[in-house]
Amino acid sequence: xxxxxxxxxxxxxxxxxxxxxxxxxxxxxxxxxxxxxxxxxxxxxxxxxxxxxxxxxxxxxxxxxxxxxxxxxxxxxxxxxxxxxxxxxxxxxxxxxxxxxxxxxxxxxxxxxxxxxxxxxxxxxxxxxxxxxxxxxxxxxxxxxxxxxxxxxxxxxxxxxxxxxxxxxxxxxxxxxxxxxxxxxxxxxxxxxxxxxxxxxxxxxxxxxxxxxxxxxxxxxxxxxxxxxxxxxxxxxxxxxxxxxxxxxxxxxxxxxxxxxxxxxxxxxxxxxxxxxxxxxxxxxxxxxxxxxxxxxxxxxxxxxxxxxxxxxxxxxxxxxxxxxxxxxxxxxxxxxxxxxxxxxxxxxxxxxxxxxxxxxxxxxxxxxxxxxxxxxxxxxxxxxxxxxx
Length: 390
Ligand SMILES: Cc1cc2nc3c(=O)[nH]c(=O)nc-3n(C[C@H](O)[C@H](O)[C@H](O)COP(=O)(O)OP(=O)(O)OC[C@H]3O[C@@H](n4cnc5c(N)ncnc54)[C@H](O)[C@@H]3O)c2cc1C
What we know:
The chain is an alpha+beta fold and 390 residues long. It is 30% helix and 27% strand. It contains 11 helices and 20 strands. A hairpin with a 3-residue loop joins strand 19 (350-354) and strand 20 (358-362).
């Protein structure tokens, strides 16, 4: 890892090594821009490595975000080969619990000609047959998206950042907090908490939930909120295989792709129980590459940064709902954690450029793994600067 011999001047400096920062650095480097990636920890530790690792165009509405998701699938596929990190084509199965939900999903397939995001309707029997542990009494059918992907985010970002840092065009500065970024004589100057200074033509600030260290005044006036999610890991003593990632029917009333489809069909599926709504619970059950079950999640929104305490009430509501969906599972929790992201409430992304060269990017919400690489490629392709200034 190139943790020595940093230059003072770069073409591009990226602050934050989560999915947004790492991919902005990667594409800057691919364009031949001499790049510096600065990360507060040795490797990123926030939302980008605490998530399910789902890359799911199926949850994106057709249009710009779906296109970014599909572009991201291609980018991850290329990188997984290059880095020798597994990328699993697990697919996603969205479950129906009522006949109305099953009819809705069936109709979605019939009316959709989305060859970029193919889907198949499964009857109740077919759905139950595809998985080790679905409860036949819960399932009325499902919609299966075979092309959705999954990776282990922690494994991926360690390999990715190590690889980026070993290339000649990107330096990686870990364990370092950038404390200021400001225009300086036609460039931007970045200072770190260790007292180092760097300059670049362009600076990308991809600081995730840290809206306090850099430009707090800019963020405060924007439509940004925090969202805290709770996650669980369950043991799998009988080594069962889920086969695919499973989403509860709550997803049908939550994700834009399904809300748009309801609108087009002129229907409105009933909202989940008030307590589930209040806690923002949408059940996902996935499996990591060790075959452990990953179960989540909840969504607690706030205007101020949330703490990292875990709520027993949230955990028991998640498990109670999952027990309706699944049978034959041992619901023993072997790990629990939370993750926090920021969400821009109207556009689904906060992007602002200061002084033509400092780009603030955050607020991507719950779709950062799915769309971040595609977004980063777009942003970097729009950069114009002389390729080599050092
Ligand atoms: C529990 C959970 C499950 C999720 N599941 C999925 C999923 O399955 N699929 C999906 O598409 N999305 C999912 N998401 C959303 C996704 O994880 C986020 O959208 C994404 O990780 C946000 O990435 P980011 O780069 O903006 O932020 P972060 O991951 O928070 O990265 C920001 C980085 O910046 C660093 N940093 C901040 N300030 C500084 C500074 N001043 N100097 C140096 N470094 C700094 C931090 O240390 C951090 O590493 C999930 C999120 C959570 C919390």
